[in-house]
From TrEMBL:
It comes from the Bacteria. One of its GO terms (cellular component) is plasma membrane. It holds the Pfam family Hda_lid. This is DnaA regulatory inactivator Hda. It comes from Georgfuchsia toluolica.
Length: 224
């Protein structure tokens, strides 16, 4: 499958804040369009594997309107949120029993107080280990799966990111990254960042031998 560069929007790191414009879209165009239209008391649940971009999207939307953004560990049984605001919670599968009760009460009050909800987790609603009434409420939200990038899309995104850094990477380096590194995009981009740093520090071109050295040194550090 061929992928045009303009079909992907690339997150700039570390300078750029998470936005909808710098998210790598891939097959998630409908989701991104829906998030751009997010308004009023909308209720959306996003799910996807670790590294799929859930946190990026939640942070991006939280910046667009008054919001309360919480990690699961920060949610309490007496959670409160202002009228007409947005409540954003990531990793809802990790909510404590008390926190689940607090979120359920927010669901009850959401319509009257015009509260919008944006929640995310690693699984579809029916597979979440949550109390039944809360799982039912989440299942009634608008639900989107964040779809992973294909290898072609990852390759295009990585090449474009490297070019933005002024880092020439040949196809052998990109293939090695996809075969031997963690395959989620944040990890792949972090490896390119590190390769760039080592290339400059050692005055060596960012070739496959240098990448192999980097991966070997990383593994040795993890073992120690």
């Amino acid at each position: 499958m061929s992928v045009r560069n303009d079909q992907l929007l690339l997150q700039l790191r570390p300078e750029g804040e998470p936005t909808l414009d710098n998210f790598v879209v891939g097959a998630n165009r409908e989701l991104i369009d829906r998030l751009r239209a997010f308004a009023g008391s909308d209720q959306l649940y996003l799910w996807g594997a670790a590294g799929s971009g859930r946190s990026h999207l939640l942070a991006a939307l939280a910046r667009r309107r008054p919001s309360l953004r919480l990690e699961a560990s920060q949610v309490s049984d007496d959670i409160e949120i202002a009228d007409d605001a947005l409540l954003v919670i990531d990793d809802i599968d990790q909510l404590s029993a008390a926190a689940q009760g607090g979120l359920f009460r927010i669901f009850i009050a959401a319509r009257e107080k015009h509260i919008a909800l944006l929640l995310s987790g690693p699984l579809p609603p029916l597979q979440l280990n949550l109390r039944e009434d809360l799982r039912t409420r989440i299942g009634q939200m608008l639900i989107y799966e964040i779809k992973g990038l294909s290898d072609d899309e990852k390759t295009t995104a990585l090449r474009h990111y490297a070019q933005q850094r002024g880092l020439p990477l040949d196809d052998a380096v990109l293939r090695y990254l996809l075969l031997h590194c963690r395959r989620d995009l944040p990890s792949l981009l972090a490896t390119i960042d590190r390769l760039d740093e080592i290339s400059l520090a050692r005055q060596r071109p960012p070739t496959l031998p240098l990448l192999r050295d980097l991966m070997s040194e990383t593994r040795q550090t993890e073992i120690k």
